[in-house]
UniProtKB/TrEMBL annotation:
Protein name: N-lysine methyltransferase SMYD2
Gene3D superfamilies, alphabetized: 1.10.220.160, 6.10.140.2220, SET domain (2.170.270.10)
Record organism: Trametes pubescens (White-rot fungus)
GO biological process terms, semicolon-separated: methylation
PANTHER family hit by this protein: EG:BACR7C10.4 PROTEIN (PTHR12197:SF251), HISTONE-LYSINE N-METHYLTRANSFERASE SMYD (PTHR12197)
Keywords carried by this UniProt record: Metal-binding, Methyltransferase, Transferase, Zinc, Zinc-finger
């Protein structure tokens, strides 16, 4: 999961907490406007001027010229990694020389022309949390990255660190601890009596956070006092995160390892995408208001010598932020972890970032960010994560990578996609069981790869995909917008998913195809949210069917053990294990899905066992698959007992009949 993904969600969710696009709450930021105008000339003068001017009112297309600046360090993704089997078939002249610390791996052959070379990046006593098994190397093709010195098995926890800074998204502030990010237990969370904004598990968490929250607490109070309307009482997570970075640098000192690690993070400021300039502008204006900065001199305590430094920090922040997720992958906030931020992107990554909340991790070490190997990774290879949702089709992935991270992905999935990418696929129009690529406006002469039948309903498919995407955006924003009338909004979103999914299915989209997969996931989420109030056999079975379709859609596009897949399977298993409100097993329904009675329990058991195997990979073997892994293991144990009772019941019945036969 990425900042970008969260960013799009946040656009709907808490965009209102940025400075208003109409500039109505910009008055406080005039100090910055002046300071930005007087910022020293630099390679990004134009950009600063944009930030300084009527930035919030400027149309994005007026900012296009920023793209004329070449990226200082373009991060293109030249080295795709598939599975080990794929790698051995591919010619990869790159990654030579191998890290010199690997015995027997020193380059001995002639140096190839244009071959990618990598050199160790001097860390200058920073990043001591980087394990000895890893190295930061600079590639001649795609900048800095994380490389392994040793063979890593799928499910290995490659790195486990506490981020420099993590903050909760506004709507989760009262649901998770602001220190350790744990979710509220039955005893509830305790609110900070001063700002009345952040919550903690207990006094210990509050005390630990105070060094960070001290400045934040008064800034939050000042912000709230001058808020123009009730819906902007709390600054966005991005603003609060940047605030913590600046107060942290102040606390630790500008020459501290902590502050230097933040400064080592890559900035793409010289080539910020036009669509991001606006976001950066909101951020800059909100941040100075939050910090109470009124003149350039006020930036001094934060070790920022000019507004230009501030622009730089924001750029660095935007490209290097990770989404903070719950143990079950719900995005709950954002965090900054400079050591892990060295990891490069691939749409087919060999590693993932998760927050497993493993048993035994003390609250002081939470949130614990884990980099976990998703596949076996050979010594000398680069460890890559995905910055974007890899269930999305190529054009949407590329769009986000360009806009937020400013590079064009050249991974195998992007450059040599399969003939039919399940993310963009239709069932064969002749229903032979084969699939065809999804038609596009430009190219609509597609045929089934199995029987050759041509797609005939091109216009209908294009329309459905467009309507589906619009509905998805709408439903997502309805789901997220405001807490005031959540129930009615949620109801509307469910109406939307309920109505659109059959249209997408009827035009022939496969369960993996976008936007059907995303719609199915959202539908499942909405249905689960409404279950407690309306638990009936029908509503439960409907969620189970939706969860099964979502799982079926994920299988072809995510590798086994991917945390998203593992969680989806665990959810299906848990839903199947819920006590049926009114089991209606009758001959007519025997073949229906989901089954009822013992077959349902068996299916629940099998799903959970598979989920547990995958959770051990996605959330790390050493973590026991994290909190969800533990939960699923307990559920398996309960089911074993329950099934045992059934089985012994059947056994007894059989024995009875055998005895009856003998007697007869
Ligand atoms: Zn806590
Ligand atoms: Zn407070
Ligand atoms: Zn890619
Ligand atoms: Zn066919």
């Amino acid at each position: 999961m990425s900042f970008g993904k969260l960013k799009s969600a946040r656009k709907a969710k808490e965009f209102h907490s940025y400075v208003k696009p109409d500039g109505s709450s910009l008055s406080d930021a005039e100090g910055l406007t002046a300071s930005l105008n007087t910022a020293p000339a630099s390679d990004s003068t134009e950009q600063i001027e944009q930030l300084a001017g009527s930035g919030a009112n400027t149309e994005p297309d007026q900012m296009q010229h920023t793209s004329a600046h070449p990226a200082q360090t373009p991060r293109t993704d030249e080295v795709p990694y598939g599975s080990l089997a794929e790698e051995s078939q591919e010619v990869q002249p790159d990654l030579k020389p191998a890290p010199s610390t690997v015995p027997g791996k020193a380059p001995d052959g002639p140096v190839q022309r244009n071959a990618e070379t990598t050199t160790p990046v001097p860390l200058n006593d920073c990043h001591i949390s980087l394990p000895a098994s890893l190295q930061i190397r600079e590639s001649s093709r795609h900048g800095r990255g994380i490389y392994t010195n040793t063979a890593l098995q799928a499910g290995t926890v490659v790195m486990s660190i506490v981020p420099h800074v993590s903050v909760l998204s506004t709507s989760y502030l009262d649901q998770h601890c602001s220190a350790c990010a744990a979710s509220a237990t039955e005893s509830g969370l305790k609110r900070c009596p001063k700002c009345k904004t952040v919550y903690y598990c207990d006094k210990a968490c509050q005390d630990r956070d105070w060094a960070w929250h001290k400045h934040e607490c008064s800034a939050l109070q000042t912000w709230a006092a001058s808020a123009p309307s009730p819906d902007v009482m709390i600054p966005s997570d991005a603003v609060r995160c940047l605030g913590r970075i600046l107060w942290g640098s102040q606390k630790e000192g500008p020459d501290s390892t902590w502050a230097r690690e933040i400064r080592m993070m890559q900035s793409n400021r010289a080539s910020v995408h036009s669509s991001s300039v606006e976001d950066h502008t909101y951020l800059a204006h909100s941040l100075v208001r939050y910090l109470g900065v009124r003149a350039p001199a006020d930036l001094q305590p934060f070790s920022l010598s000019s507004a230009s430094d501030l622009v730089d920090l924001i750029s660095r922040f935007t490209t290097n932020t990770f989404t903070l997720t719950s143990a079950s992958l719900s995005p709950i906030g954002i965090c900054v972890a400079p050591t892990v931020a060295f990891a490069n992107h691939s749409c087919s990554p060999n590693a993932v970032i998760v927050f497993p909340r493993a048993q035994g991790t003390p609250a002081s070490k939470e949130p614990s960010l884990n980099l976990v190997a998703l596949r076996d990774i050979a010594p000398g290879k680069e460890v890559r994560i995905s910055y974007v949702d890899t269930t999305l089709p190529k054009d949407l992935r590329q769009k986000e990578l360009t806009e937020v991270y400013n590079f064009t992905c050249q991974c195998k999935l992007c450059t040599k996609p399969p003939t039919v990418d399940p993310r963009e696929s239709l069932w064969c129009p002749k229903k032979c069981g084969g699939t065809c690529p999804l038609p596009t406006e430009e190219d609509n002469l597609f045929r089934c790869t199995k029987c050759g039948a041509g797609v005939t309903n091109v216009d209908a498919v294009l329309d459905a995909a467009r309507i589906g995407q619009e509905a998805l955006d709408k439903a997502t924003s309805l789901q997220f917008r405001g807490e005031l009338s959540l129930r009615s909004k949620g109801y509307n979103a469910t109406q939307l998913t309920t109505n659109i999914i059959p249209i997408l299915v009827s035009t022939g989209l496969t369960p993996s195809a976008h936007p059907l997969l995303a719609m199915t996931r959202l539908h499942q989420e909405l249905l689960i949210a409404s279950l407690p109030t309306s638990l009936s056999q029908e509503s439960l079975d409907e969620v189970i069917r939706t969860a099964a379709k979502y799982n079926a859609g994920l299988q072809p596009i995510l590798p086994k053990g991917h945390p998203i897949r593992a969680i989806a399977l665990a959810e299906l298993g848990k839903l199947l294990a819920v006590d049926e409100p009114a089991s209606l097993a009758s001959p007519a329904q025997a073949s229906m899905f989901p089954p009822s009675g013992p077959p349902r329990l068996k299916l629940a058991y099998e799903s959970l066992v598979r989920a547990h195997e995958e959770l051990l990979v996605g959330f790390g073997k050493a973590n026991g698959g994290g909190h969800v892994g533990r939960d699923v293991r307990d559920a398996i144990a309960r089911l074993e007992k329950e099934i045992g009772v059934w089985t012994s019941g059947i056994k007894n019945a059989l024995e009875d009949s055998v005895l009856a036969q003998r007697a007869g």
